[in-house]
């Protein structure tokens, strides 16, 4: 027998916990996490979401308490998604830029109570349109680009005025980053950051989110294929990201997460930009359902999924598991 067989033993570095820790290439910690939250009107109110067990819509006062806990856990930022009643929805989505709207009030309350927590707002019209699309429709039912962008700019400015640290356009209209950036500069919000949902795919994994914000019933089976990306496309994501960087985005995003890790890797390698990834509602629902059935170990599989997103190139991850993960990591 050849005494040098095998030439290399990669198992040596796996043979003890200390060695595994020394060679570990990727780490996950609370600094990587952003918690998306659903906000509702009222006081001391929560509502559960059938397709997202463990996630609750909550009123602003409860959200402020939650923000305090996130700061204690070391989570850097929160992403707000307002859920308003049908009476606030219209064809023109005017409620989107109401200076005293739900999102704007939530931003003010959180920044007043926990100024150190980064607040990210969603810039898109779907919570406020009666049809659930992210933009304004023409007579043929097509989402109009430039008319929508005008409203998005007003919405983003109302968020900045309320004190949002980061505005995050999730609408996929063309040219909106440039217009929002110009609006912010003109109004003097030179340090308001833009997180561009640059490569946002027309994904079936957004289903539970649409239940959470109530846009599923308004959409009534309609799709978003004329503005969100075709899941079949990869090169196109680089084109989308390049435009958003050129237009003034501070951070770019790939969404969803786990089915799109090839895109995350390509975007990171091509642009070396801060790249955020959204582990979306459907990814949460899959993991949660399997865990609730006893089919997956929840903590291990969630940590593995998030670690994989980071390994692919993510700098930060929006995840409904953020608070759980920070708790798990702090007791590990
Ligand atoms: N502007 C809409 C928006 N913003 C975030 C999500 C999905 C997030 C998730 O599934 O967790 C969606 C859904 C959609 O495009 O229909
Ligand atoms: Mg684009």
Q: What would you say about this model in short?
A:
With 332 residues, the chain is of the alpha/beta class.
Question: What topology, given as strand order, has the largest sheet?
Answer: 1-4-5-6-7-8-9-10
Q: What integer value in Å does the Rg equal?
A: 21 Å
Which architecture per CATH? Alpha-Beta Barrel
Element order, helices and strands?
HEEEHEHEHEHEHHHEHEHHEH
Give the biggest beta sheet: 8 strands, parallel, barrel
Number of helices: 12
Unreliable stretches (pLDDT < 50, length at least 5) are none
Which cofactor or ligand species appear? ligand PBG, magnesium ion
Percentage beta strand: 15-25%
Q: State the CATH topology.
A: TIM Barrel
Q: State the share of residues found in helices, binned by percent.
A: 40-55%
Give keywords.
binds ligand PBG, binds magnesium ion, single chain, 12 helices, 332 residues, alpha/beta, TIM Barrel
């Amino acid at each position: 027998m050849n005494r040098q067989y095998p030439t290399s033993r990669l198992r040596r570095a796996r043979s003890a916990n200390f060695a595994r820790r020394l060679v570990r290439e990727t780490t996950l910690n609370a600094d990587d996490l952003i918690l998306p939250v659903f906000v509702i009107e009222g006081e001391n109110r929560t509502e559960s979401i059938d397709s997202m067990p463990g996630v609750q819509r909550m009123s602003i006062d409860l959200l402020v308490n939650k923000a305090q806990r996130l700061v204690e856990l070391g989570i850097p930022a929160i992403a707000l998604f307002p859920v308003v009643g049908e009476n606030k929805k219209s064809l023109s989505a005017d409620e989107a830029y109401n200076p005293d709207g739900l999102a704007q009030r939530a931003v003010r309350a959180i920044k007043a109570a926990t100024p150190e927590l980064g607040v990210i707002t969603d810039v898109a019209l779907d919570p406020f349109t009666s049809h659930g699309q992210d933009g304004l429709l023409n007579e043929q039912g097509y989402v109009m680009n430039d008319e929508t962008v005008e409203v998005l700019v007003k919405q983003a400015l109302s968020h900045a005025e309320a004190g949002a640290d980061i505005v995050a356009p999730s609408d996929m209209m063309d040219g909106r980053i440039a217009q929002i950036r110009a609006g912010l500069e003109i109004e003097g919000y030179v340090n308001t950051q833009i997180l561009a949902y640059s490569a946002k795919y027309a994904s079936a994994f957004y289903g539970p989110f649409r239940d959470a914000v109530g846009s599923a019933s308004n959409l009534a089976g309609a799709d978003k294929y004329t503005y969100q990306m075709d899941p079949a496309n990869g090169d196109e994501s680089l084109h989308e990201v390049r435009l958003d960087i050129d237009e003034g985005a501070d951070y770019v995003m790939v969404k969803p997460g786990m089915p799109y890790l090839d895109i995350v890797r390509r975007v990171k390698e091509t642009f070396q930009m801060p790249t955020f990834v959204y582990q979306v509602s459907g990814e949460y629902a899959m993991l949660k359902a399997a865990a609730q059935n006893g089919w997956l170990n929840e903590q291990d599989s969630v940590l593995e999924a998030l670690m994989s997103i980071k390994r692919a190139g993510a700098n930060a991850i929006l995840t409904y598991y953020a608070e759980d993960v920070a708790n798990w990591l702090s007791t590990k």
